[in-house]
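Database export, one record per block. Field names are fixed; values are copied verbatim from the stored entry.
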Amino acid sequence: MSLDVDATLARGYTAPGQYIELRAPRGNGYFVLAGSLGDPVWELLVRNAGDAADALFHAPIGTSFEVTAPLGEGFPVERATGRVLALAVVGSALAVARPIVARRIAEGAASRTHVYVGARTAADVPLADEVAAWSVDGVNVVLCLSRSSGELERAGARKEAGYVQDVMRRDVDRLGPSVLVFAAGPEAMLTAMRDLPRATLEVVTNV
């Protein structure tokens, strides 16, 4: 979904991982900004679940919503310059990865970028065409599937059974030393991510 916002609000989007609160008649909701920093069109990855999400999903083009300025500090993406970066995201938190992956590809760091996408099955991965395009551009994409059912592989992506945090724990040696990890998703996943071996991984969450 896309929202047109004024320049003042747009300038507040300064770091990937920032989010907004959107107010709808039936309730409020929080949504991660999924587009380019500072862009006056805010892109949101919306699941049709929850009052605010439902309102967005069914709203005709041109509908107005009340939104806050971008919230949170987001991820310190500049710290990833010259380093191996692993992004760990679950479900609609994939929105966090979009601006980060775009920046890494533009910087020529695609091969040093790993994206772990958590979903129930490969068919449940959001923005599947974009995720496949990341692989084509050289990003190392891993689909972490909690209910793997033998579907065809997404182009270029590795498929592993298990939750994101479990797959990453198995991949510690594969990733190499001094890896920076950005993680976004449910609290249980973030808690498990913070418990990964700190001697090898530096884990940063935006919560």
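Remark 1: The chain is about 25% helix and 25% strand.
Remark 2: The chain has two domains: 2-67, 77-205.
End of record.
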